[in-house]
Amino acid sequence: MKILLAEQELQAGVRRLAAQIRQQYGEQPLTLVAVMTGSVVLLADLMRLLDMPLRIGVIGASSYRGGTTAGELQVASEMLIDIRDRDVLLVDDIFDTGRTLERLVAHIGGLGARSVRTAVLLHKQRETEVTLRPDFVAFEIPDEFVVGYGLDYRDHYRNLPFLGVLEPQDLERDSPAVLSARSEPGDG
Ligand code: 5GP
Ligand code: MG
Asked: How far is the CA of 15 from the centre of ligand 1 (A)?
C-alpha cells in the first residue's frame, strides 16, 4: 500500500480544519453531525480540537456497497439528535462526487436546522456531479481510491493511522491479514 498522507500530516490537516471552523463559528454553539462510518476517526480528532459548546450527532449514509464504485445512496437518521434551530456542521471523510453531502445537506435542512455547512477531510480532484462545494476542506487529493483514517475498502483498513492508496493486489485480496505500508513504489 502506498502512503498518500502520513499520520502527522493528517493531524496537521485536522488542526487547520479546526482552526477554520473556529474562525467561522467563534464561540457560538455548534452541532457536529458526522457521516458514519467513514468519518468516525475524523470526528474523534476534530471534536477534541473545538472549544465552543458542542453537540455531536451521527447520521448514516452509504453509497459504496462493498467495492470502489458508487451504488444507490441510503440515509439512516435513527441515531440523529434533535437539530431543529441548530447550526449544523456535517462532517464527512471525503467529498468525491458530492452526491452524499448534497443529499445530506437537504436532509438536515428539511429537519429544521438553522444553518448547514459541510467539513471534509479530503476533497478529490475530479469533476463533481453537484453544485455544492464543501465549506471546509483539510486536503485536496488526486482521484484515487484511498483507505485508512476511517475510510474503508469492504469494511477493512479503517484503523490505518495514515491515508493509503490501495494497489491492485490489495483489491484482489478478500480480507487483509496485516496492515502494511510502504512509502516508495516498488519496494513492498
Ligand atoms: P460522494 O457521494 O461524494 O461521491 O462519496 C462520498 C462517500 O463515498 C464518502 O463518504 C466515502 O464513504 C465514499 N468514498 C468516496 N471516495 C472514496 C475513496 O477513495 N475511498 C473510500 N474508502 N471511500 C470513498
Ligand atoms: Mg462515507
From this structure: 22
